[in-house]
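Figure 3 (text version): structure tokens given as input.
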């Protein structure tokens, strides 16, 4: 809370770019469909856009931390471990990113609702999954279109886990899911004439080349206007965002190095958790879906994210998934209903 309040006064001006757009709606974008239009509408209806940022922080941050409280506080959170350090780092920047009008505030609430469905286990597993898919699809229609892809990728992971015999199942689930995202992009190219990363990340980064906001942009070294170029661009995006060893080239930027270390820690811990759930998939039949959703989101980021700063902000928006995945063995309830 303190960090979030202080951030409303001390962050660089570009940190407030989204908030300024949301509050002022310079281009009359307000509406039901799309990230900015929906967010502008939300802050217009709630009247929050009329408040100074520090008051917005005092309203929004407690709501999100109450949601974390409802998900659960693990007994081990007070210990000095890599897992706890990674979560606390994420929570600090949650306070910063949601201390102002932001899409991440809405995103966090939506994702928290999904997590509570799987944590509470009030419904049979199939119904719980259907409810979650409905949330993702509705969120995709009204707010962030790429959320519609999450049910598809997570279902694919489920089939690989339960119905396909694979050696090294965990690694191959991630590999085949990545290949699935490449096929989605290539199919989009056949239908629309432009591949997904070509028309989103690559086009956006070309427009802002050389600007101060493009210092950590992700630009494939190979043109993405061919099927093999797009395939490499998706791979390059996935690695740059989720396993960003190539980001150490920004060694003069401590904030970027901090993100890289945080992201590498996330990926390592989540990979171990996924492997545990895959190996004990009947015991963790609810919890494994949280890992499907997290890694589906990681795959999607490989298609869309334009730079490391955006990748960090958007990962903070799905922190409820990451948080529950980290501590699923401590926070998971026994089944309340038969699945």
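Below: residues designed for each position.
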């Amino acid at each position: 809370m303190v960090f979030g309040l202080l951030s409303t006064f001390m962050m660089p001006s570009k940190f407030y770019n989204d908030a300024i757009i949301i509050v002022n709606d310079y281009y009359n974008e307000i509406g039901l469909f799309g990230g900015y239009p929906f967010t502008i509408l939300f802050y217009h209806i709630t009247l929050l856009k009329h408040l100074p940022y520090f008051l917005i922080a005092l309203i929004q941050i407690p709501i999100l931390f109450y949601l974390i409280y409802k998900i659960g506080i693990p007994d081990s959170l007070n210990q000095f471990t890599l897992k706890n350090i990674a979560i606390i780092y994420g929570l600090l920047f949650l306070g910063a990113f949601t201390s102002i009008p932001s899409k991440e505030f809405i995103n966090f609430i939506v994702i928290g609702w999904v997590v509570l469905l799987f944590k509470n286990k009030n419904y049979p597993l199939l119904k719980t999954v259907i409810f979650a898919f409905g949330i993702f699809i509705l969120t995709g229609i009204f707010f962030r279109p790429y959320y519609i892809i999450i049910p598809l990728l997570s279902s694919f992971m489920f089939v690989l886990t339960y119905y396909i015999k694979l050696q090294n199942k965990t690694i191959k689930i991630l590999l085949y899911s990545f290949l699935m995202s490449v096929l989605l992009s290539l199919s989009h190219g056949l239908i629309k004439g432009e591949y997904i990363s070509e028309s989103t990340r690559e086009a956006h980064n070309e427009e802002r080349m050389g600007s101060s906001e493009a210092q950590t942009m992700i630009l494939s070294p190979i043109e993405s206007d061919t099927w093999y170029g797009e395939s490499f661009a998706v791979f390059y995006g996935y690695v740059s965002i989720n396993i960003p060893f190539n980001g150490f080239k920004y060694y003069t930027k401590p904030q970027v190095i901090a993100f890289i270390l945080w992201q590498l820690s996330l990926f390592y811990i989540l990979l171990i958790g996924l492997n545990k759930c895959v190996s004990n998939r009947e015991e963790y039949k609810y919890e494994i879906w949280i890992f499907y959703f997290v890694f589906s989101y990681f795959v999607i980021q490989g298609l869309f994210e334009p730079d490391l700063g955006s990748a960090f902000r958007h990962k903070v928006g799905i922190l409820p998934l990451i948080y529950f995945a980290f501590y699923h063995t401590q926070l998971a309830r026994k089944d309340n209903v038969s699945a």
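The chain has a mean pLDDT of 88.
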